[in-house]
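Worked example 3 (structure in, sequence out).
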């Protein structure tokens, strides 16, 4: 996904448990949606559209719209976790959720297989609506919402949905923040042993 000059931190991640949280996580540790090309990669990887959906129409205006929605989601989720309602963000998410998300349909190929395709052209408002509705569903379901967690990793601001058995997950990703924590713990123990 990343170009040859990009660092590993630019890899797209989809491990927060919800599309809306995955979008909010695209600012950490640095901006991941920095171009229309990166937004196309995120949309394709997120599962918002069926595999093979043409994304040629994704441009700078889409990028600005997704950045705006991302900011509203981040403020809304943080406000809910902190007990500080973000009603302006809530109003904007609700307004975006009103639009109909993209409608799928089954299409038979020449060899008889069924593929999922979108009915009609792909519009930015369709995708924004799908992410906004995911946010609404997440925050209005008390059982699901109870699984919202902030990553305990150093300098990590990612919020994720803990669906682990016993709800004991501590990090946004065991492979990223969890691994960093385990390495740091090992180094601390080694330094104490040498001292």
């Amino acid at each position: 996904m990343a170009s040859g000059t990009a660092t590993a931190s630019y890899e797209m991640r989809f491990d927060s448990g919800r599309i809306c949280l995955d979008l909010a996580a695209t600012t950490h540790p640095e901006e991941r949606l920095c171009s229309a090309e990166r937004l196309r990669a995120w949309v394709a990887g997120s599962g918002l559209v069926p595999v093979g959906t043409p994304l040629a129409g994704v441009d700078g205006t889409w990028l600005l719209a997704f950045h705006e929605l991302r900011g509203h989601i981040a403020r809304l989720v943080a406000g809910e976790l902190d007990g500080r309602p973000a009603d302006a963000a809530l109003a904007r998410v609700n307004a975006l959720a009103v639009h109909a998300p993209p409608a799928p349909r089954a299409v038979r190929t020449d060899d008889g297989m069924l593929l999922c395709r979108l009915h009609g052209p792909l519009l930015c408002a369709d995708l924004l609506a799908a992410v906004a509705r995911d946010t609404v569903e997440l925050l209005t379901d008390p059982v699901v919402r109870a699984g919202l967690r902030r990553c305990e990793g150093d300098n990590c601001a990612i919020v994720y949905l803990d669906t682990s058995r016993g709800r004991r997950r501590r990090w946004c990703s065991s492979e990223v923040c969890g691994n960093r924590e385990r390495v740091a713990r090992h180094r601390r123990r080694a330094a104490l042993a040498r001292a």
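Notes: Residues 8-147 form a domain with the Jann2411-like fold fold (CATH 1.10.3300.10). DSSP finds seven helices and four strands in the chain.
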